[in-house]
Design goal:
alpha+beta; two-stranded antiparallel ribbon; 8 helices; 5 strands; globular
């Protein structure tokens, strides 16, 4: 499995994200740093039945120790991109990390399926992977984030679901009586991130 150093992940994610956001690259790097720190600080319990406790959102393993390089999979880079997209739409950092932990298995499998297929030829050339209207096209996958302010204390703060049309997302919203929804296109974003990662080069520690 191809892995990437942190500088490559930050460079690629920033390149994909920054073209569709007014957030500066330096602020994006700060957000990435905080997301990684929060995910690591929460720790994990692999045997837990709660997926949010059993999984990291952005790591494969426990930390290798102080001063050691950390490698990220392509999926983990993709998860960071989606966490930034959630935050751009006003979802709190902790909410994004929790959802990506809980939905890791489902989202990681879908990410692999997306990349096994070539980019859709009928994808609109002006498709925006961060914000704006969601276009309809063959083979699309949408990440739908739902929250319910009136949930019971023992219920999760939000739901993460994969849909294949905007109408499917709206049906999900009505069925679950949720108060807020955000939908993100995944197919184009995954292929753009793969291309951006391929253009990066690992940087040695201590060198600019």
């Amino acid at each position: 499995m191809q892995t990437y150093k942190r500088n490559q992940v930050e460079e690629a994610v920033t390149r994909v994200f920054a073209g569709h956001s007014e957030t500066s690259p330096s602020e994006l790097h700060t957000r990435i740093k905080r997301l990684l720190e929060l995910d690591r600080d929460l720790g994990r319990k692999p045997r837990s039945k709660d997926a949010a406790r059993a999984n990291f959102a952005f790591f494969s393993d426990e930390g290798p120790g102080r001063g050691a390089d950390i490698s990220f999979s392509e999926y983990e880079s993709f998860a960071l991109l989606n966490a930034l997209r959630m935050m751009e739409h006003g979802w709190p950092q902790g909410f994004a990390v929790s959802l990506l932990r809980r939905g890791r298995s489902q989202l990681e499998q879908e990410h692999a399926r997306i990349l096994r297929r070539p980019p859709a030829e009928d994808t609109p050339s002006n498709e925006n992977p961060v914000a704006g209207e969601v276009p309809e096209y063959s083979g699309q996958v949408l990440l739908t984030v739902l929250s319910n302010a009136d949930r019971a204390p023992d219920q999760p703060k939000g739901l993460l679901r994969l849909c294949h049309s905007f109408q499917e997302s709206m049906t999900l919203l009505r069925q679950n009586a949720m108060s807020q929804m955000t939908t993100f296109e995944l197919t184009v974003a995954a292929h753009r991130l793969r291309h951006a990662l391929a253009e990066t080069r690992p940087r040695r520690r201590g060198r600019s």
